[in-house]
Design goal:
Blueprint: E1 5-11, H1 15-24, E2 29-32, E3 38-44, H2 48-57, E4 61-68, H3 70-76, H4 82-97, E5 103-107, H5 114-124, H6 137-147, E6 153-159, E7 162-168, E8 183-187, E9 191-200, E10 202-203, E11 210-211, E12 216-219, E13 221-225, E14 231-236, E15 240-256, E16 258-275, E17 278-281, E18 290-301, E19 305-325, H7 328-348, E20 352-356, E21 359-363, E22 366-378, E23 380-384
Parallel strand pairs: 5-7
Antiparallel strand pairs: 1-3, 1-4, 2-3, 6-7, 8-12, 8-23, 9-11, 9-15, 10-12, 13-14, 15-22, 16-17, 16-19, 18-19, 20-22, 21-22
């Protein structure tokens, strides 16, 4: 209740006369617990003084029992008004922050790093602080597929104040869920078709054919011809099947035979706060012969409502160096271990390694590993057929 009210207990023999006096002067009152010689009156705080004047004229006793209402509360706690104002400002700020993207998170990367994709998105399409209403997730997905050839599938989604980007560099065999709506199966990357089994739809390619990323492998657009090979009808159905392709991946690695091994001795930390583009740094000392890394802890509410406030920790790891020289045999072994680790990561995604054409050689004080890895993998993605094309 915005209007302040008060309750006044009145004792005396002229209760009815007091009520009549208030009524004649348009004084709004509410009576409670009325007896012959007493009554509790509820009246506006604005009319309190006039009402008490009437009571005094009638030689009656009264006592103010309580006062309540927003205005009374503000008057009582006027020294604490900064608390509700700060609360209101906080809620208003959160509401304003909810209209923008303050975090971009990448999931599922392997060949490309999450930071690499995130930096590209921030530089070319969605900078931190972009209005959510200005972001077209479908257009962003198309742009990322076109820019990153090795990414087979991309999904962009706005959640809270976070832009979430899921990527798949290799399509799992059970990825395409059964769908009864009209759809096509398209190639996720450039390859040579190794095996194809069509269970529904119209097959567009054969085993041994070379296809490009985005080519239709099985279509849900099924033409119906008469006995004279004339098109009489086009049916739209869902495409389903299993298609594997032979894909060639480039591999490249290079490192020097002579390097310096670091021995870390101690760690120094300094702290700061980022408020949007404003950086606040606490005093710190810079050290030579140190590796510097920065860790960020972004404040958030729940799982996906990020705020434009980051707690920054700068870590300086002090080290001493010692020269380390590998002989050719040690360098070759190190390069082979890195190659086998890369292959094992590919196999974890369910691909079958067909050929390893990577050559390792020593040249000009460097160990160089280059070549291709030939694999067999599941290559199709389910894509809905545009509704506007159906019926044409």
């Amino acid at each position: 209740m915005l209007r302040s009210m008060c309750m006044i207990s009145v004792n005396g023999k002229l209760i009815n006369r007091l009520i009549n006096l208030c009524t004649r002067n348009d004084l709004i009152i509410t009576c409670k617990n009325k007896t012959e010689n007493s009554c509790d009156f509820i009246i506006s705080s604005h009319d309190k003084d006039l009402f008490c004047e009437y009571i005094t004229k009638l030689n009656m006793d009264y006592s103010v029992m309580k006062e309540y209402g927003i205005c009374t509360w503000l008057k009582k706690y006027k020294t604490r008004l900064w608390i509700p104002f700060c609360l209101f400002f906080l809620l208003f700020s959160i509401w304003m922050f909810s209209k923008y993207v303050w975090n971009i998170t990448i999931y599922g990367t392997n060949q490309y790093t999450a930071e690499q994709i995130k930096q590209y998105v921030m530089d070319e399409y969605v900078a931190i602080g972009t209005k959510k209403s200005e972001i077209d997730c479908s257009a962003l997905e198309d742009a990322l597929r076109e820019h990153y050839d090795e990414i087979a599938w991309i999904s962009c989604e706005l959640s809270g104040t976070m832009l979430k980007i899921d990527v798949l560099e290799t399509i799992p065999q059970n990825y395409n869920q059964a769908s009864k709506s009209p759809s096509n199966l398209i190639a996720s990357k450039d390859c040579i078709v190794s095996n194809i089994i069509t269970t529904n739809g119209y097959q567009m390619v054969e085993q041994g054919m070379e296809v490009k990323k985005g080519d239709i492998l099985i279509t849900g657009v099924v033409p119906i011809y008469n006995e004279y090979d004339e098109l009489i009808e086009t049916n739209y159905t869902y495409a389903s099947g299993e298609i594997y392709g032979i894909v060639s991946y480039d591999y490249s690695d290079c490192f020097a035979l002579q390097s310096y091994e670091k021995t870390y001795t101690e760690e120094k930390r300094s702290y700061g706060i980022d408020l949007g583009n404003i950086q606040i740094n606490l005093p710190s000392k810079k050290y030579t012969n140190s590796d510097v890394t920065t860790e960020y802890k972004q404040l958030k509410i729940g799982n996906s409502f990020y705020l434009p406030v980051k707690l920054r920790t700068k870590i300086q790891k002090l080290y001493t160096t010692e020269a380390l020289v590998l002989n050719e045999e040690e360098a070759m072994e190190k390069a082979r271990k890195k190659l086998y680790y890369h292959i094992s990561q590919m196999q974890k995604k369910g691909v079958e390694i067909l050929e390893n054409n990577v050559k390792i050689q020593i040249s000009d004080g460097q160990c160089i590993a280059t070549g291709t890895i030939l694999v067999k993998e599941y290559i199709c993605i389910l894509v809905p057929i545009d509704n506007t094309l159906q019926g044409e």
